[in-house]
């Protein structure tokens, strides 16, 4: 008889996408910063060496939708911004615009 490796493991586990979203949110999101939703803050993550950076979640629409996924083309000035600063321009914008939220 072969022993179970993890007998307490439930049959339903989170999807890979749910696990990535949860880790990125845990790492980056600061609900007290006033810097936008968790997806807006995660989309601005500057940790390009993180293995999850290219697949990090982002909003479906708005200023931070479809963020850059290639660390080679991200402007160095943008990488110096604090993580989760949702008032900064999107790094792929040709004509940066500030976010009008307060």
How does this structure look, described?
With 102 residues, the protein is mainly alpha-helical. It has a domain of 64 residues. Helix content is 23%, strand content 0%. The protein is built from three helices and no strands. The longest helix has 13 residues. The C terminus is likely disordered.
Descriptors:
102 residues, mainly alpha, disordered C terminus
| Mean residue pLDDT | 77
Instruction: Determine the structural class based on helices, strands and strand pairing.
Output: mainly alpha
Order of helices and strands: HHH
Instruction: Classify the beta-strand content into a percent band.
Output: under 5%
Biggest sheet overview? none
The outline comes out as elongated
Radius of gyration: 17 Å
Distance between the termini: 63 Å
How many helices does DSSP assign? 3
Any low-confidence stretches, pLDDT <50, length ≥5? Answer: 93-102
Give the number of DSSP strands: 0
- The amount of helix comes to 10-25%
């Amino acid at each position: 008889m072969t022993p179970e490796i993890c007998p307490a493991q439930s049959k339903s586990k989170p999807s890979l996408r749910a696990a990535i979203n949860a880790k990125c949110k845990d790492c980056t999101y600061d609900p007290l910063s006033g810097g936008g939703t968790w997806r807006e803050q995660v989309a601005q993550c500057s940790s390009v060496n993180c293995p999850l950076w290219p697949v990090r979640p982002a909003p479906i629409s708005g200023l931070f939708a479809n963020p850059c996924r290639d660390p080679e083309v991200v402007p160095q000035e943008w990488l110096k911004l604090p993580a989760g600063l949702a008032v900064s321009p999107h790094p792929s914008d040709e004509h940066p615009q500030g976010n009008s939220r307060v």
